[in-house]
Amino acid sequence: MGFFLGDVGVLHPSGGTVELTGELTLTSSLFLRAMVEHAGLTARDDILTRPLHATLDGASAILRHAIFGFGEKDFPVSGDMFVLAGVEYERIRFDGEAPLLRYEVVIGMGGAVVVDDKHKKPYQLIAYGLRWMFSRAPDPGTLPLGCDGPCSMPTKTAPYDHTIVMELSWQFGR
Amino acid sequence: MAIRALTLAIVMLAARTASAGSPTWDFGIAFAGGAEAIGDRTFGQIGVGSWLGRKLAPDVAITVRAELLTTNADDPDGNLILGATTRGLVGIDWRLYATDRPFVPELFVNAGIGRELTAWDRGTVGRQLVFLGVEGRQGFDIPQGRAIRGIRRMGMPLGLRFQLAPAIEPMTIARACSQCGTPPRARTDFAILFYYGLDFGR
User: Fold this and answer.
1) Phi, psi (rounded to 5 degrees) for B70
2) ipTM above 0.90, yes or no
3) Residues of B in contact with A76 (CB under 8 A)
């Protein structure tokens, strides 16, 4: 599960997410993670007359690389710190509007604690971290070009959206 | 010819450095905060930065850095001007003081070039920049074959960086003038950034 905070064009919705994750070990320090998530979001920007609700559904493929690990041999608790890189395809739908479909670049970092008692299967992994996601901002339509700060190029909106998700997960493996 | 010779020399130097005992690669992440002049206004900045460096010589590394910062200030009416600044930098880290003692800081000077894009809710400003900084890194070597695997050194860098970029037209508009001329324009915008984080060597 996690907390989503980010941009969708000129709106800045936030809310909680639930995620389902599966991970395949490629090498001792490289893992392929597949994830689907669903979020309930609310935007409360000044340009809105009332809070605007939205749902987000996403699917992502992410490589997780353990930059270093720790743990003693024969001790069941170990862990690592990792970085993430991948792609997410998301569908965002605001109340009464057509859905926005787009790809996002995903990067991130975090840590994992692995409990692997050789006498008990499966092993358990608790992971915590941050994901940053970047994508092109949607065209806001009829908004005029302008500069809301010192600028050399007027635009209708910021050229890209960026989002942060803080998350905690509990995984089982063998 | 000269460029080929220089490239070959750098590659050979990097290869030789890789076979030496100390870490060849260093990477990390840091929290960063500072201020930047954009036009005629100074903005506060806070965010995160990360880097990846490769040693070219015992005391010299080439490093690429990426930063994402929130950029904000109040206008004269008290309204918040809020944007996001993305920076990409490449430069040289030159170690002025080295030590084998754990937690005694090593001293570095960083210099290089880069590009930044600041995006407001509407409008963007993108420009080239040059930077010069100083950095202290406390750290310790990690014994191999023990509880921590995959890295050979861990440290905590603390740095201060100065940056210069071409100025843009000021936002301020003259409210009244009898013989109006072009408002004076600064030719260079100045920025300062302070950062503190974690550094890993492999």
Assistant:
1) -85, 130
2) no
3) none
Q: Does B39 touch chain A (CB under 8 A)?
A: yes
Q: How many C-beta neighbours within 10 Å does residue A41 have?
A: 23
pTM of the model: 0.81
Mean pLDDT of A151-167: 88
DSSP string, A87-135: EEEEEEEETTSPPEEEEEEEEEEEEEEEE--TTSSSEEEEEEEEEEEEE
Best residue in A75, A152, A164, A166 to probe B by mutation, most B CBs within 10 Å? A152
Nearest to B151 among A67, A132, A148 (CB): A67
- Average pLDDT of the residues in B29-49: 93
Given the structure tokens 């008990």, which residue do they identify?
Answer: A120
CA dist., res. B10 & res. B18, Å (int): 12
Asked if B88 has any chain A CB less than 8 Å from its own CB, the reply is: no
Q: Is B128 helix (H, G, I), strand (E, B) or coil?
A: strand
Which helix or strand (DSSP H or E) is residue A61 part of? strand A52-70
